[in-house]
Design brief:
single chain, 327 residues, alpha/beta, six-stranded mixed β-sheet, 14 strands
Length: 327
């Protein structure tokens, strides 16, 4: 297999740095692009020092794959230049996820969609990836009709400033000093914030609707109905989701547990144990546990799952898509 030349757009951000860590094991020739203010910065990759270049429209010559770890605005700005250069743009932003001509891919679920691209492939939302990884075994047993989910999202999901703000607020509380909030709309230390994204007219937030809209596209279930509540919690890393899944036919708990245990990228946690953020951080497996019958509606299964939203929820999923293209 020929060496594939990879460029990271947004290399100095949290997801871009995580992509570098993952790519270091894959031996891809790599170039780093970022905004003008980050140009010239030195970063270590696979024991070598690389210089970050300013991202411009002519920066993508010679690239085979561009991994996007930048904002949706930058993704939209540079996508035409990336495609014109003959590279495939695997974008982690929300810019193209719902475009009909852009595949939205989780490699363990719908790898074939990646091959239908027209130059752009989108990485789904982090909570969507983790949730669908946990329920994909159920979808293989019986079509999913509806889901009710509550996400408990770590502060690092808001970018590098999230953990810094939580740490600063914890320190201020311990010292008896005033707490300041800049990254989040309210104090996050010792608190929960039931808003991620902006509110829509129906009372849901933009983050909450991603679970339904993206889930329909990834699972190829256009009639899937999802009610989701997204909550920011004072946890540094790894998102958690409580989800009830309603299927076409009734499934037993043991049937679901056996199916989850056999799924690629998942780990069944039972026997008195359960998934937790600390256990799932800095790795790529989604932990699934607390599998039980839903007591409110027939044909329902409830479970709890955790996964590292920076890795499998963003960087690793994008790298896995790149590997699909290479194969």
């Amino acid at each position: 297999m020929k060496p594939y030349h990879v460029v990271i757009l947004g290399a100095t951000g949290e997801v871009g740095r995580e992509m570098m860590k993952i790519l270091a094991e894959r031996h891809f020739p790599l170039r780093l692009l970022a905004s003008a203010r980050s140009a010239g910065k030195k970063m270590t990759f696979a024991g070598e020092e690389l210089t970050v270049e300013e991202a411009r429209e002519d920066s993508f010559a010679g690239a085979d794959i561009v991994l996007g770890a930048a904002s949706a605005d930058l993704a939209r700005r540079f996508a035409p230049a990336i495609c014109a250069a003959g590279a495939v743009f695997v974008d982690n932003s929300s810019a193209f996820r719902m475009r009909e001509d852009v595949p939205l891919v989780v490699p363990e679920i719908n790898p074939g969609d990646a091959l239908l691209h027209h130059g752009i492939i989108s990485n789904p939302n982090c909570s969507t990836i983790i949730t669908l990884m946990a329920v994909k075994a159920i979808a293989r047993l019986s079509p999913i009709r509806a889901m009710v989910a509550a996400t408990y999202q770590a502060v690092s999901g808001a970018g590098a400033g999230g953990p810094l703000e939580l740490s600063a607020q914890n320190a201020a509380i311990a010292a008896g000093k005033p707490v300041e909030a800049h990254v989040f709309p309210h104090q996050i230390a010792e608190n929960l914030i039931p808003q991620i994204g902006s509110f829509l007219p129906d009372g849901y937030t933009t983050e909450e609707m991603k679970m339904q809209n993206e889930g329909r596209k990834i699972l190829h279930l256009p009639d899937l109905r999802v009610t989701c509540t997204c909550v920011r919690v004072p946890v540094m890393r790894s998102h958690s989701i409580a989800v009830s899944v309603y299927t076409e036919r009734e499934l037993s708990v043991r049937e679901v547990q056996d199916a989850v245990a056999a799924e690629e990228g998942c780990r069944l946690v039972d026997g008195g144990e359960y998934p937790m953020p600390l256990a799932t951080s800095d790795q790529d497996t989604v932990f699934v546990g607390r599998v039980r019958k839903d007591l409110a509606f027939p044909n329902g299964i409830s479970l709890f799952c955790c996964g590292d939203q920076v890795r499998k929820g963003a960087a690793t999923n994008a790298v896995q898509i790149a590997e699909l293209l290479c194969r």
